[in-house]
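REVIEWER CHECKLIST
Item 1: Sequence provided? yes
Item 2: Single chain? yes
Item 3: Sequence as submitted:
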Amino acid sequence: MAYIAQPEQQQQLEWLDGGTLAMLLDGRATDGQLMVGRFDVGKGEAPPYHKHLHEDEIFLLIKGTALVWCDDQEYELAEGGVVFLPKQIPHGYRITSERADLLMINTPAGIEGMFRETGRDKATPRPPGFQVTPNPDIADTYGNIVLGPPR
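Item 4: Structure as written out by the authors:
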């Protein structure tokens, strides 16, 4: 099954700290095989320390720098760096550059539901005072287990 989506067709979600997550591919487009998202985020953006029960994750840092934690080991990720995070391995990251462009791939798909429930579709009106806040209950529903605060 082939799927093509031009940039204007990709859902844009408001994400942590005013960033954006573009949903490039999801389970509907890939028959559940993978999810691909692209983050445009600023310095300090960091999700809670967590692990995935169902999917492996790959991060490609297209632009910017970040610290990445994998099973309590800290690594510096430079522009162009890539990291593979197998399911069940605790991990997190923090953006250290002023801006970052981060490609995220999850296989199999499914976790995109958590991003959609937690973020806000930028094609809809922004409610007054809206803020993206990670919710452990929503995360648990999608097999994303929050283990602690952001690093």
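Item 5: Key structural point noted by reviewer: The first strand starts at residue 11 and ends at 14.
Item 6: Recommendation: ____
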